Amino acid sequence: MSDLIKLTNVTKNYRRGKEEINIFTGLNLTIPKGDFVAIMGPSGSGKTTLLNLLGGTDRCDRGEIVFDGEHIEAYSEGQLAAWRARNVGFVFQFYNLMPVLNAAQNVELPLMLTSLPVKKRRENVATALKIVDLSDRAKHRPKELSGGQQQRVAIARAIVSDPKLMLCDEPTGDLDRASANEILSTLQLLNRELGKTIIMVTHDPEAARFATRTLHLDKGHFVEAIS
Ligand code: ADP
Ligand code: MG
Predict the structure, then answer these.
(1) How high is the pLDDT of residue 224?
(2) Which atom of ligand 1 is closest in space to residue 43's alpha carbon?
(3) CB 14 less than 6 A from any atom of ligand 1
(4) What domains are defined for the chain?
(5) What is the pTM of this model?
(6) Centroid of chain to Cα 177
(7) Using one digit for the tens of pLDDT, what is the confidence trace for 12-34?
(8) Which of 45, 116, 187, 189 has a 20 to 30 Å separation from 210 between CA atoms?
């Protein structure tokens, strides 16, 4: 299986005034195409920072980030934004849906920036809502949906541009067990049936079991699991 992502010697620092905070030094990571990885680790260990580097919403200070052969660390902000729109879908803990838009409109948002004709946009939205089993809630606003349903809308929004990579930051962190399992089953289906490569940060060992492997991050380093 070929690699989708390869991080080589990645260093990431945050600057706050005069202070420099080191998050990663010489981090290496390879993600093959079709992988479903869970990332676990204590609060502050750099999990969200890692997703932001992988998804091009943040940049590293040194090192290489290669995605499907493209050196994204060398991209300008504009190139990075265009690359992201084509290749990455994000899912967050608190869904981040627009409250004034209905489910279908929320899912359509990422397509508004593309040149896709309206008819094709609507078709893609309908397909994405069908995949997450929410075709019958297309006209509902977020507040008229349960937490689990809102997260399924967010997943539909993440996949509507047919990205290769999905980055999920504690996607079940705000959900009860049953709703969480529905979301995790949906992610598993996207991975197995549609070949999406998924990287999911979670605190929940049960959630991690839905992934094919788990990486443990501690203070900016990958460590062996403590059993
Ligand atoms: P996690 O998601 O594992 O809880 P984060 O990646 O959010 O960890 O944060 C790792 C460390 O980086 C934390 O110490 C956090 O305070 C710091 N950090 C995150 N974002 C910024 C930022 N924009 N500026 C400064 N420090 C940050
Ligand atoms: Mg985090």
Answers:
(1) 84
(2) 4
(3) yes
(4) 34-60+83-226 (3.40.50.300)
(5) 0.96
(6) 21
(7) 999 999 999 999 999 999 999 99
(8) 45
